[in-house]
Amino acid sequence: MTYDGSPADFVFDRWTEGSAPIEEIRKFAEAASDPGSEGYIPKKDRIAVFDMDGTILSENNPGDMEWALYLHRIYSDPGYRATQEQKDLAEEMVQVIRTGIKPPGFTARKNRCNAEAFDGMTVGQYVAYIKDFISRPSDTYDGARRRDLFYLPMVQLMEYLAACGFTVFICSATEIINVRTTIEGIIDIPMHQVIGTEYLITASGQGDADGMSYVMDWNDDLIYTSRIQLVASGMNKVIKLIQGIGQCPAIAFGNGSGDFSMLTYVSQNPFYKGKCFMLLADDDVRDYGKPETAAKLREQAEEMGWSVISMKEDFKTIYREGIKPKFRDIGEVFGDGRFI
Q: How many helices (H) and strands (E) does the chain have?
């Protein structure tokens, strides 16, 4: 990460003065990096993991970054001819953004249609497509490109933990190439420290041959396919952490039910007392927060013994100066025939 001074001198100027979560994190991190402390964690075991959408990045683009990219592909890409199922899913997605209610089977349909919408692209084409998309002006925030919607306090927190000797990972339900492309130039971690949903990648000349028997040719391109290997949400996040890191993190940050399993896993770290935080999207003035939903999430987190971070109470700033919501509520994005 970018900060190279002493952790003791780190200034949390993106956070409100006296923020309780920051004091808690400072205490934990200082103990973890002090060999004389009971809370000491050797550097090799000092691992932090963050969810992405809704934890370090706005989920209102509209929807998380993957949803927004899908809607752009279906509604706004003149070179793409969507199937009827993909169009139907886009309409469902719009309703979920409006109401916050997911109908039965929605997530499975969303995963399948999203993968199919980019099937056949080379990896290079897919990366270029994402870069173009996130460089465009946001449809839901004034003064921002889509890539500008990272929560500055959380980015600063990642920098602090890195300064304390933590290896920082991201574990996201969003497709892994999408995550790596989105954070590039903003979150300064190696790409191998990004964990996410994975779709099968094949060589252009491979056809139906198994990857164990096919030998890549000099002229082969790497092709992104719609074959989902594992969606990194819920319990699958725990599986991905075990496979991707090989050991349990010591501290974790999430923002919703899709992170519950990950936080439970970290809470049960068998060697050190794991620390977990739930970010509450409760600021409905500076952002599209939902205080009632956040209050229920707070209750759930506290019942599990997890600490909470309130965007309303703990964030001095959310985004850089000049960035603010365009609408009173995210549900208005599709009002009066407006689309992204």
A: 11, 9
